[in-house]
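TEACHING EXERCISE
Course module: macromolecular assemblies
Task: Read the component lines below, then compare them to the predicted structure of the full complex.
Student: A.B.
Group: 4
Components provided:
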Amino acid sequence: MKKFQLLFAAIIALALMASCGNAGKDKAANNKKAKTITGAGATFPYPFYNKIFKSYTKEQGILVTYGAIGSGGGVRSITDKIVDFGASDAFLNDKKLASMPAEVLHVPTCLGAVVAAYNLPGKPELKFTPELMEGVFMGKITNWNDAKIAEVNPGVTLPDMEITVVYRSDGSGTTFIFSDYMSKISKEWEEKVGKGKALKWPVGIGAKGNPGVAGTISQTEGAIGYIGSEYAFSMGIQMAQIKNQAGNYILPSTESISAAAKGEMPADTRVSLTNTDAADGYPLSSFTWLVIYKEQNYNDRSLDQATQTIKLIDWVVSADAQKETTKVHYAPLPDAAVEKAKAVLGKVTYNGKAIKL
Amino acid sequence: MNSEKIFRYLLVGSGVLMVLIAVGIVATLFVGSIPSFKEFGFGFLYSADWDPSEGRENYGALPFIIGTLLTSILALIITFPFAFSISLFLGEYFKDGVLPSFLRSVVDLLAGIPSVVYGLWGFYTLKPLVAELGLNAQGFGIFTSSVILAIMIIPYASSLGAEVISMVPGSLKEAAYSLGATRYEVVRNVIVPNAGSGIFAGYILALGRAIGETMAVTMLIGNSNEIPTGIFDLGNTMASLIANQFGEAEGLKLTALIEIGLILFVITGIVNYLGKLIMKKLSA
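Instructor-supplied answer key:
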């Protein structure tokens, strides 16, 4: 009798598992019409994607869903082939590219930046040089009345107040962009801290997400931290001007962020814009990318599914969608970048043949 | 098949399913942490270095194990006098009436408040207070998190205690009173020895809750991945670290986080087991 009961339970469990498995297979039958396009990844461009995917769904009658699960999750999802496209704030490096199951392509969709926000009594407008950034975030400059800060900011009264560095405790593309910049301007940073989506911080307090960092800064006098531009712009947070490579102090804005992307761009669009040499470019700017497979016939995807996916991404880089960027506080792709993006999309194939849109 | 049998199969089925799920979770954590274990071995448990930067990845769990144990045990110490008083009040002194039932509802309500709300309150009220008292510079840290945890676990620590205290046989108490014992003496010599294991069970439950708490801790602990130097220093806990870093983790870091999850699971298991052992000793 006991054996019988166990057997019965096992059969129920197996039946449950089998039915789940079958449901997945049915969906992927080969020449079916595409009903939904699924993407997942970066949280940073989510407000932009959310807005344009909604209007695309309305106009084209095909449901586009996007899960803002983080860039790492986006790359994992595309690696596991469970989404039509992944999204990431950091492009895949050569090592990561080589480890993907098939060749993937990067399509830039818009630009954002990282701003340095601070909280000081009297709300003075501050300028930062790369040397100051290094000093403050490495914990070498510990008080706001330090002579080095005063030297760059003549005429500003700086209080005798301890500097509290605030950083992102969660893994984040924002941290990646920030540390990518810091590694370029500071040898010491590169050696001791390095770059990544999360870091081993020399000083400071960790807070979760842009709202967490912004909240902690606004609650703490003498605090300084870095925040995603889309969040900082929409909340009207006070931010510092930063000296770029050309020697100009640049306030982050959608114009100065777009300007950072004016330089040369490789054909695969994988380029870091931090510490840009553009004279009017903001030095902590970055593209954000969609990541897709070059060969779209994987996991029994239908031709229509592939075509619809590429059509959507082609529309994202079109003028129609790009004009929405500034409404949600992102910077649009410069024309040269749009051209490169379209060229990348031209390389996509289904069964080795180019996809007709 | 008669209904008796169907019912029985259903019960057995759901029982087996529970076991399968629990075993499945352990197996997933175990398999997921193999790469990390291969890389770091047992050193993972006592290494204090958590460096996720590209090209120099090195992971150790010690700061988070210490952070977790420190916050939750401190929370239990802070919560003890309050929870015990509430248990006594509701279980012995005022069992019925408007005020006790109101108090009971409030305590139960504490258990129902989402932890992110505790976090917000801590962030905007408790943290500035801690900073103002001069306990540390910005108000974040182990101590602040422990205070929030202490408030969160009061219902878990007190309800079970109140229940057990109210179940102490009246005849025992009456016997003590008839011998001329005062109320305090009854509490000390009759109620506590009788209800001890039940009260203790409540604290184990509460400790388990504190160990696993994530959101409120993340918002207040300062998320510094170093071993805290004292209770007013910044720190981080295992649950908070996983919640923070999991979204963007991949490769070695991902498996290190899963191994931390496994350690958390094991620690919770050990705490529960020790709790049961002590309870057995107490009730024997």
